[in-house]
Amino acid sequence: MARADFPDLAAIDQAYPLMVKAYLPHGLIGLVVAGLIAGGYSTFDSIGIGISSLFVRDIYARFIVKNATDAHYTRVGRITVPFIMALGFAYVPFI
Predict the structure, then answer these.
(1) pTM of this prediction?
(2) Are 17 and 32 in contact (CB under 8 A)?
(3) For residue 54, what pLDDT is reported?
(4) Cα dihedral sign for 51, 53, 56, 57?
């Protein structure tokens, strides 16, 4: 559909933004952009929590502090999430 409406389309990754801009009113464009941002944030947040959990269970609990309570491991996991997310943001320019 995008090729039919925009025959001079140079890159296929431009199809969705052009279609949204051409066919949706301004209020819905804002809603679509907010949805895309929320989806990206949710994905990045889930990846950060997952990697933090992997670090705590597979490295920290196994090799660093072996006999701690679950509350301790939960606290360490919560502390490592911002560091994991910061590393992710620092890595973005290299993609």
Answers:
(1) 0.74
(2) no
(3) 97
(4) negative
Written as one letter, the residue type at 28 is: L
- For the chain, the domains span 45-95
Cβ atoms of 10 and 3 closer than 8 Å: no
Six-digit token string for 81:
């999430």
Residue with tokens 């431009």: 14
pLDDT tens profile 17-70: 999 999 999 999 999 999 999 999 999 999 999 999 999 999 999 999 999 999
Better-predicted residue by pLDDT, 62 or 1: 62
Identity of the amino acid at 8 = D
Q: Which helix (H) or strand (E) holds 55?
A: helix 26-55
In the chain, the N- to C-terminal Cα span, in Å, equals 30
Residue with tokens 């919560």: 78
Residue where the block lists tokens 């929590």: 49
Length of the chain: 95
